[in-house]
Prior knowledge:
Blueprint: H1 7-16, E1 25-28, H2 38-45, E2 49-55, H3 56-59, H4 69-80, E3 84-90, H5 105-122, E4 128-131, H6 147-164, E5 169-176, H7 180-188, E6 197-201, H8 213-226, E7 235-240, H9 251-267, E8 273-275, E9 295-299, E10 307-309, H10 311-323, E11 327-332, E12 339-346, E13 349-356, E14 361-365, E15 368-372, E16 377-379
Parallel strand pairs: 1-2, 1-8, 2-3, 3-4, 4-5, 5-6, 6-7, 7-8
Antiparallel strand pairs: 9-10, 11-12, 12-13, 13-16, 14-15
Helix pairs in contact: 1-8, 5-6, 7-8, 9-10
Amino acid sequence: MKYILPxxxxxxxxxxxxxxxxxxxxxNIHFTDxxxxxxxxxxxxxxxxxxxxxxxxxxxxxxxxxxxRAYDRLMTALDEHGIRALFILxxxxxxxxxxxxxxxxxxxxxxxxxxxxxxxxxxxxxxLWEMWNEPNLKQSWKSEPNVxxxxxxxxxxxxxxxxVAPREKYCGPAVxxxxxxxxxxxxxxxxxxxxxxxxxxxxxxISPPETVLPEYAKLRIxxxxxxxxxxxxxxxxGEWGYSTVQKNIDDEKQGKYLSRQFLMNLLAGVPLSIWYxxxxxxxxxxDKEHHFGIVRHQFFKERDPVYDTKPAYATxxxxxxxxxxxxxxxxxxxxxPDDFVLLFxxxxxxxxxxxxxxxxxxAVVGGxxxxxxxxxxxxEPKETPR
Length: 386
């Protein structure tokens, strides 16, 4: 594969390349009550966002009565550490539609009322609201994925948000992978009238992050085709990671892929990148789902740090330490489409992030001859780039 940035993405880079590192970096979590020392580790890694389910069934246990106290506690912890929340509006409620995903007028109306209550409760606190999680999968949209029902719910929710808090930001559909068929059906149904961004989960399996470029290009074309006139709607990477028990993916490669994943999203004009997952969900060496974390599963209450870290944690710290406050400018050609040399600028300062998807080899970066490998290197140029 040739890893050349498709032409359709060049305009997107120009529009959305203004996000400074690490303002668009986030992590998926699965808690409302952080353990002591946990939020500090998330901040120290370099994250500015967390993505978390706002569960309908858990906050409307009695019809028409909403309890957001657990999320109040989470928001307090996030505010104390300067972290923004992406809350996923999701999942079923036993009081409606027989506990299935909302698919009747009654169920949609109830979900929209609950959404309006949540948005009203947290409005003005820089929350990004996301419509469901992976509605194209059976385990997420029960009983069977149905894009027509999903889009009808997304529109009902969009109308509810605009009624109670029109300045709040709303996105979707958080599809697993970049499912263009599902996405286009959402767009045809009118969802882009309400969404401020399109969220996808560009999982690659074991393929490297660079393989996402052609898919982003196709999605960019679809969004531009269906977007309301005069609106440029960004793509967000809402969930994406690599498990360390997959074939050919060990702890070291996960670390290399994390930094390359975030940098690839900046190259593609994707302003928000949320890694999956924060900590390992378990310790079963055969369960892929247990090993997406950048820290390990066990919590150490009396220790600092409170989790053992994987190499991915350190590679993110290195990325942020080198590029904090820098904005992506452009990709520098080396003569090989397999080389990635990305130029970043901060005022009059410049830096390169450089790596290759080919075998290690020599290249000239910023006037300096060096060996490119699969690990990202950060270089201050000897020559001022044009």
